[in-house]
């Protein structure tokens, strides 16, 4: 279609100046001079999460999206510099409370790497179960958000109903629905008895059964497939270049999973498949996570059936009952920089602790969350799609602003 | 003059045997007899009581509750319960209505104030006018051989008020919502009108009496199933129900044209779609499900026809309520493509089918 330009004095609305937008001033004027439209989605919008998306649309087609994150920045890294190492464990879970065990695990493994603590086999298996339970919980949560972004309220309620089983399993194992702070340097806080493990084993089958009804109503729903297929496509090269991580990278056909590349905990001792897809569109990103849930259920079952006997905490730490703070309060890491890679539910999670070797608080702690890593790919995949697809792609990425902002 | 009016009312009163003794008694009291005669005057009864305003309000109370309850049952929830526990929260819609009524109605600075406030009320005119033309047996407001065409014409006015609401709101999301409303308006209106025309050809005229009489043995849904299907889908589109809840997609554009409304004005615009659904379903029942045909109960007399029409309407809407918990929302371009290819094609097939059946019969 041919465009005609007419020179009319344009005055962008005044309110755009007072909103402190992270864009140059002439950008707004440029948009208004062309036949384009600037839509500010969020931070108070049912489909934006805790962030603002500055969407430049031409007709119904998105030209460019500029993210304005940081509305839920909680200074986790800075607060961590003023707390004891052991007090940081509940703190690092907060960025993503759904995915708490994986965040906990990444931090604790950095400490263990610094101190050279060997973790007993039983603790490794319990940690793996916790991590996988949290992974399922996060994937279900993201599926629910995707469903409600597509206007499918039943698809919103079912995963939350299923997630109750995960929460119940976590309650029985750790005592809290999430953010249990159960993983500590050297192992886990308490041993998990046989009866509880049996319950979790049975719960995996209950989850699988309920997932079938979710599949009928949402995953195989023709309207959902119509909304997600061929939407927000990231090719293999693009996904690698934009630094997309986790299931979203695997949905573009890249077989990368930290659990395979640098195995930690009990992932070497169980058999599971790495789930990938080739399409790289919204539906592939969703399906990869759905299939990962069944892989995670299988990992949990294998962990429970082959759970080794032994202590739940390392010999180097000893019994922590009644002497938890005596053991851990004066933890001082040797000087140096310790980095761990963890496969959190939404992707690669990097924890770096810098210690000066004499204080009992970290000199610097760095968290690079998966949400922050794939924000670029998320924004790039929106280009050329329709305005209504903004929420569909948002949901297909499962972007979680508190996690990205830390 | 009052006595002449009274004579007019008395000459055309509803004959309901079951309440006849009470009516006879009330007719002897001086002022009350005038009111009773007015209420039971057939045109007044049709427009204000049933299937008119009072039935509409009753239906609104019921359908909001039923839809929420049904959706909750599908979604492993309980649904509204706390308002009137013994009757399972059945007056939840009333409670919400009272809340809307007393809430502050904010008119924001950018809005075109007169239109912003007037349009939700003006939108009721095209909703209430069709009721005057929809007959239920002998109970009818204005008898017209072109009633079906008139109802369709009035229905076509409703989206214009919604687009005007979006314009008066003067907000980005309201603007996008009005454009979506305009696009979807064109895309459903054409197949909808063709489907209705096919039924008019089938019955040989736009007279509801003729249509209902022709359906005394076989309902219109069986005589022209394609028009039935097209009408059903366009009804979902016209009343912006899922999967076509595009103009007011709350996750995408935050209720579209109605984004700036609050308080009582929001209560008014929120029920617009439900009222439109009611009118369309009345038309649907008359054209496809045999209208007021039903088992005649002697004791109810003239009330039979409106009651059957109302019951059929409510059943159809209750069945339609389940799509809300089954489907996700389509995109606007998908809906347009679907409607301009499949729906128009189907409606033209229905038209040919209707002409052939009407010609044979």
UniProtKB/TrEMBL annotation, chain A:
Q: What is any Pfam family matched here?
A: Complex1_49kDa
Stored Gene3D superfamilies: Cytochrome-c3 Hydrogenase, chain B (1.10.645.10)
User: Which species is this record about?
Assistant: Archaeoglobus fulgidus
Entry-linked SUPFAM superfamilies:
HydB/Nqo4-like (SSF56762)
Keyword terms, alphabetized:
Oxidoreductase
Record keywords: Thylakoid included? no
Q: What is the protein named? A: NADH-quinone oxidoreductase subunit D
Known InterPro entries for this protein?
NADH_Q_OxRdtase_suD (IPR001135), NDH1_su_D/H (IPR022885), NiFe-Hase_large (IPR029014)
Q: What is its EC number?
A: 1.6.5.11
Looking at the UniProt entry, the stretches that span the membrane are: none
Superkingdom:
Archaea
């Amino acid at each position: 279609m041919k465009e005609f330009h007419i020179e009319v004095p344009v005055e962008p609305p005044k309110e755009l100046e007072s909103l402190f937008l992270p864009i140059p001033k002439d950008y707004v004027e440029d948009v208004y001079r062309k036949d384009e439209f600037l839509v500010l989605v969020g931070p108070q919008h049912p489909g934006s999460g805790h962030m603002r998306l500055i969407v430049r649309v031409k007709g119904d087609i998105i030209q460019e999206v500029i993210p304005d994150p940081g509305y839920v920045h909680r200074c986790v890294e800075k607060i961590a510099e003023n707390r004891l190492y052991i007090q940081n464990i509940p703190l690092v879970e907060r960025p993503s409370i759904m995915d708490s065990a994986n965040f906990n695990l990444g931090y604790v493994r950095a400490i263990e790497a610094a101190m050279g603590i060997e973790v007993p086999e039983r603790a490794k298996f319990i940690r793996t179960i916790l991590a996988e339970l949290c992974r399922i919980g996060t994937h279900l949560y993201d599926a629910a958000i995707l469903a409600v972004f597509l206007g499918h309220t039943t698809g919103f309620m079912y995963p939350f109903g299923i997630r109750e089983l995960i929460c119940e399993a976590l309650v029985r194992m750790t005592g809290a629905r999430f953010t249990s702070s159960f993983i500590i340097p050297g192992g886990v806080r308490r041993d998990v008895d046989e009866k509880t493990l049996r319950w979790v084993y049975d719960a995996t089958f209950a989850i699988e059964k309920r997932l079938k009804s979710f599949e009928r109503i949402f995953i195989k729903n023709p309207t959902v497939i119509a909304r997600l297929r061929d939407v927000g496509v990231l090719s293999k090269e693009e996904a690698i270049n934009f630094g997309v991580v986790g299931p979203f990278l695997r949905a573009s056909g890249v077989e990368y999973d930290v659990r395979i590349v640098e195995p930690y905990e009990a992932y070497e001792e169980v058999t599971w498949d790495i789930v990938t897809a080739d399409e790289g569109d919204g539906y592939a990103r969703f399906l990869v996570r759905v299939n990962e849930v069944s892989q995670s259920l299988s990992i949990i079952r294998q962990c429970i059936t082959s759970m080794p006997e032994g202590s739940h905490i390392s010999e180097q730490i000893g019994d922590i009952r009644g002497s938890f703070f005596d053991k851990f309060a004066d933890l001082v890491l040797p000087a140096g920089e310790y980095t761990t890679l963890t496969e959190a539910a939404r992707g690669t999670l990097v924890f770096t602790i810098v210690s000066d070797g004499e204080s009992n608080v970290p000199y610097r702690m760095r968290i690079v969350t998966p949400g922050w890593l794939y924000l670029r790919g998320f924004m790039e995949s929106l280009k050329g799609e329709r305005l209504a697809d903004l929420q569909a792609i948002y949901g297909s990425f499962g972007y979680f602003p508190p996690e990205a902002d830390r | 003059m009052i006595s002449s009016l009274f004579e007019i009312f008395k000459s055309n009163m509803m004959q309901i045997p079951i309440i006849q003794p009470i009516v006879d008694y009330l007719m002897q009291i001086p002022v009350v007899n005038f009111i009773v005669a007015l209420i039971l005057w057939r045109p007044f009864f049709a427009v204000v009581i049933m299937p008119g305003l009072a039935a509409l309000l009753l239906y609104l109370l019921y359908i909001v509750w039923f839809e929420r309850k049904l959706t909750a049952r599908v979604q492993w929830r309980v649904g509204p319960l706390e308002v009137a526990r013994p009757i399972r929260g059945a007056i939840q819609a009333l409670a919400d209505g009272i809340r809307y009524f007393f809430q502050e109605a904010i008119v924001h600075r950018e809005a075109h104030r007169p239109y912003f406030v007037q349009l939700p009320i003006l939108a009721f005119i095209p909703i209430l006018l069709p009721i005057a033309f929809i007959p239920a047996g002998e109970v009818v407001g204005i008898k017209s051989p072109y009633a079906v065409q008139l109802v369709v014409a009035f229905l076509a006015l409703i989206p214009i008020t919604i687009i005007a609401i979006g314009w008066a709101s003067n907000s980005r999301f309201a603007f996008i919502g009005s454009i979506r409303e305009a696009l979807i308006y064109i895309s459903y209106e054409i197949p909808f009108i063709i489907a209705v025309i096919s039924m008019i050809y089938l019955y040989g005229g736009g007279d509801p009496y003729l249509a209902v009489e022709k359906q005394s043995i076989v309902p219109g849904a069986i005589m022209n199933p394609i028009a039935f299907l097209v009408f059903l889908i366009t009804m979902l589109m016209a009343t912006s129900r899922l999967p076509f809840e595009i103009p007011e997609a709350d996750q995408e554009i935050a209720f579209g044209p109605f984004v700036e409304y609050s308080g009582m004005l929001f209560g008014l615009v929120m029920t617009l779609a439900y009222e439109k659904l009611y009118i369309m379903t009345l038309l649907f029942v008359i054209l496809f499900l045999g209208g007021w045909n039903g088992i005649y109960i002697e004791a109810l007399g003239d009330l039979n026809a409106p009651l059957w029409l109302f019951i059929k309407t409510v059943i159809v809407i209750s069945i339609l309520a389940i799509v809300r918990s089954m489907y996700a929302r389509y995109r606007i371009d998908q809906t347009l493509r679907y409607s301009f290819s499949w729906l128009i094609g189907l409606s033209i097939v229905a038209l040919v089918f209707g002409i052939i059946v009407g010609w044979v019969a």
